Amino acid sequence: MNQLFTNFLPINDLDLKVGQYSVLQCGKLCTDEKSCQTFLYKPQDEKCFLYKYPLLEYTPVLSEAGVVAYEMEGCPLSGLTLNREAGLCLKILFTTNRTSFYASSVCAQLGGELISLETDQKMTFLKTYILQYYGEKKGVLVGLNSTGGWDWASGAPWVPSSLITNKINNFDSGMNPCGSDFCGVFSLSSSSAMEIFDSCCLNIPLLFVCSTSVL
């Protein structure tokens, strides 16, 4: 685990455990709870807090003196963010090469692929990650492709979720005709609302998301 000296607590999604704990006991609680990404410990009061996301630049926090934060580790490379509950690590990268082939090749060099969002948990985690990493809404290329039917890079079929607005229509006004397949773009229409639309695979967004397996 990676120790961070913070003196603050996240405002949302924080679980204060009842009782008094040592730092090792607090760490074990986090280890045993798959949704726990970070645990925060206040030695003075022996308080243990579990948090389901990593601590990022725009994580909403309040000041709390004496708190030390520890992030769980498990990614094969530095710079990747762990999602323990989904069993994957992710990284958002920037590119000026606007083709999905290039984005896929970069992910392959990291030992992974463009992220597949087959579950609501993965979608919600990515939404929170984008907001807390960038502090604003962003559109990112994900591993969804129209080749042979809409499927994720993992091979799972695209099944619309009630949590996300489906705007896939096999059309890209920015590149028409496309001359290629269409690729999925995950975006936020507000701080809480998610949507997915398609873009020509030769005209992808500037940001894309790679994922790898955990150690």
Structure summarized in a few sentences:
This protein is 16% helix and 33% strand.
Secondary-structure blueprint:
Layout (H helix, E strand, L loop, with lengths): L1 E4 L2 E3 L3 E3 L6 H10 L5 E5 L4 E5 L9 E3 L4 E4 L9 E3 L4 E7 L5 H10 L3 E2 L5 H15 L5 E6 L5 E2 L11 E4 L14 E7 L5 E7 L6 E7 L2
Parallel strand pairs: 13-15
Antiparallel strand pairs: 1-7, 2-6, 3-5, 4-5, 4-7, 8-9, 9-16, 10-16, 11-12, 11-14, 14-15
CATH superfamily of the largest domain: Mannose-Binding Protein A, subunit A
Q: Indicate the overall shape.
A: elongated
> Order of helices and strands, N to C?
EEEHEEEEEEHEHEEEEEE
Estimate the mean pLDDT confidence: 93
- Oligomer description: single chain
CA(first)-CA(last) distance: 13 Å
Structural class call reads: alpha+beta
Uncertain spans: none
The CATH class of the largest domain = Alpha Beta
Largest sheet: 5 strands, antiparallel
CATH architecture grouping of the largest domain: Roll
How many separate domains make up the residues? Answer: 2
Q: What's the arrangement of strands in the largest beta sheet?
A: 1-7-4-5-3
Cα gyration radius (Å): 19 Å
